Amino acid sequence: MFETDRIYTATTSAGGDFRFDAAVARVFPDMIRRSVPGYTTIIPMIGVITERFARDDSHCYDLGCSLGASTLAMRHGVGDRRCRIIGIDNSSDMIERCQHFIALDDHPAPVELRCEDILDSELEKASVSTLNFTLQFVEPERRPELLERIARATLPGGALILSEKIRFEEDWEQSIQTELHHDFKRANGYSDLEISQKRSALEQVLIPESLATHRERLLAAGFRQVTLWYQCFNFVSLLAVKG
């Protein structure tokens, strides 16, 4: 059903900024598995975290749901609690394919998919929310606003799972972590040309920030506790809990 990611090979790369269009949707599972170290660990752990924080009569949001991997992890994590899972993405190509995977899954928890911008989405009664490699694609000046809206919508004791590619404050650390990430991609079959072309395509649309910036912003937004629960090279996942 899914194709091998060849978008940035010499013969097929079209140039321009990276977009979550039909071409990316077709290869997305292969792309993210080979590009994001630890992705196959983070997804099931989202289910584990959801199991701990989900509450009856609440919503669980997957903000930037793409093909629904986190959506399904949350769906299974809620167990038999009365929760509604809501996946939101502004790519109609992603939502269309996501609907297919949700339909194939037999868990009874209701799932609602919305094709809209998470910056404009109405959020309420959230016990668990995920921003799984999503915030990095939001304009930096609008990130505090989004996190504040999520925090306001989160019930006391609720949680936000924030997964991001980060940058490091020390040049030497940034350099070696970037090199290790590129080594990871090479080990997964990407050529130097593909790595270079994708990096160029992402430069203007994926803006990483430091771990300290993420922590400070989450606390300022209204979350009481922030902990780093996963890191591999320059990819991390944080758990923020509202008091």
Per DSSP, the total helix count is 8
Number of strands: 7
Order of helices and strands: HHEHEHEEHEHHHEE
Stretches with pLDDT under 50, minimum 5 residues: none
- Rounded to an integer in angstroms, the radius of gyration calculated over CA atoms is 17 Å
Kindly state the mean pLDDT as a whole number? 95
Distance between the termini: 43 Å
Shape: globular
Strand content: 15-25%
How can the largest sheet be summarized?
Answer: 7 strands, mixed
Task: Describe this protein's structure.
With 243 residues, this protein is an alpha/beta fold. Helix content is 42%, strand content 21%. It has helices at 22-35, 39-53, 69-77, 92-104, 143-153, 171-187, 192-202, 211-221; strands spanning 58-63, 83-89, 111-115, 126-132, 154-165, 225-232, 235-241. Strands 3-2-1-4-5-7-6 form a seven-stranded mixed β-sheet, sandwiched between helices. α2 (39-53) packs parallel to α3 and α5 (143-153) crosses α8. The model has no long low-confidence stretch (mean pLDDT 95).
List the helices and strands and how they pair.
Elements: H1 22-35, H2 39-53, E1 58-63, H3 69-77, E2 83-89, H4 92-104, E3 111-115, E4 126-132, H5 143-153, E5 154-165, H6 171-187, H7 192-202, H8 211-221, E6 225-232, E7 235-241
Parallel strand pairs: 1-2, 1-4, 2-3, 4-5
Antiparallel strand pairs: 5-7, 6-7
Helix pairs in contact: 2-3, 5-8
Short description:
With 243 residues, the chain is an alpha/beta fold. 42% of the residues lie in helices and 21% in strands.
